[in-house]
Amino acid sequence: MGKIAFLFPGQGSQTVGMAKDAAEHDDRARAVIAEADKRLGFALSKLMFNGPQEELTLTYNAQPALLTASIALLQLVDGAGLKADYVAGHSLGEYTALVAAGAMSFADAVYAVRRRGELMDEAVPAGEGTMAAVLGMDADALEAVTNEIAAQGDPVEPANFNCPGQIVISGSKAGVEKAAQLLKERGAKRVIPLEVSGPFHSALMKPAAEKLKAVLDSLVIRDAVIPVVANVTAEPVTKKEDIARLLIEQLYSPVRWEQSVRTLLSLGVDTFVEIGPGKVLSGLVKKIDRNARVYAVNDLASFEAAVAALKGE
């Protein structure tokens, strides 16, 4: 059998009720959620389980909530004896991957992403920056357009290379709107505005990155026990110095997700287990390699199905 990678989702996958059945069923999952409440000093669990969705979606709530839900679900996977050869996470999910890889404690990571959310929120006032998904356009043609608009003074740039034909752009509201118009004229199939509160993974996030460095410097980051494929480089990292540097760069650099999955495939991974709410990453992996075996563990039932399939092999 080939190698296994665990994948952890990012913002956009949050849903009210996430990880609730895991917490009800599993003591360790429940303990993870209680630890988040304690470290953050407020009832994150209440927001995760009961909503409202609008409040859960605010970046400084969504980030710790997704990390907590994913690590709670990881307790089930660990308990079943499933182990990863590699881990990766999309944007915020990279912090979850670092917890899974032993590079950060859960308590430190949940605090770090709460601060990361607050800093991202403060970097650009709400409504001044945004993001949009561009479908059906290759990277070179897309970058020609974003460079052209940015050169006219409205910041916009590629933010996530998700899978073939799906690239997210990020920048000022005007930059993204102008780029969207020009991209459609130049052959993009669709441009879909995203429900986000800011221009994440763009140069507009550099002020937040400076402050994030101070947060990360106050926490303990260790060498990873399991190699983590980093968003910024799409290469595996294990050294703590590299991990810390890349987390800061990640805030204003594109997420090279398609390339990260291709790196994992080239390292011999043939089975991907997405651990956390939703199944966004599972869908992206399938678009990158339709022969990959992909399982999404987002609740108790999907966990049991994945274990049965993986143990049966």
TrEMBL record:
EC nos: 2.3.1.39
Catalysed transformations (reactions): holo-[ACP] + malonyl-CoA = malonyl-[ACP] + CoA
Broad enzyme group: transferase
MF annotations from Gene Ontology: [acyl-carrier-protein] S-malonyltransferase activity
GO biological process: fatty acid biosynthetic process
Cellular component GO terms, alphabetical: cytosol
UniProt keyword list: Acyltransferase, Transferase
InterPro entries: Ac_transferase_dom_sf, Acyl_transferase_dom, Acyl_Trfase/lysoPLipase, Mal-CoA-ACP_Trans/PKS_FabD, Malonyl_CoA-ACP_transAc, Malonyl_CoA-ACP_transAc_FabD, Malonyl_transacylase_ACP-bd
Family per similarity comment: Belongs to the fabD family.
Name of the protein: Malonyl CoA-acyl carrier protein transacylase
Origin species: Geobacillus thermocatenulatus
Phylogenetic lineage: Bacteria, Bacillati, Bacillota, Bacilli, Bacillales
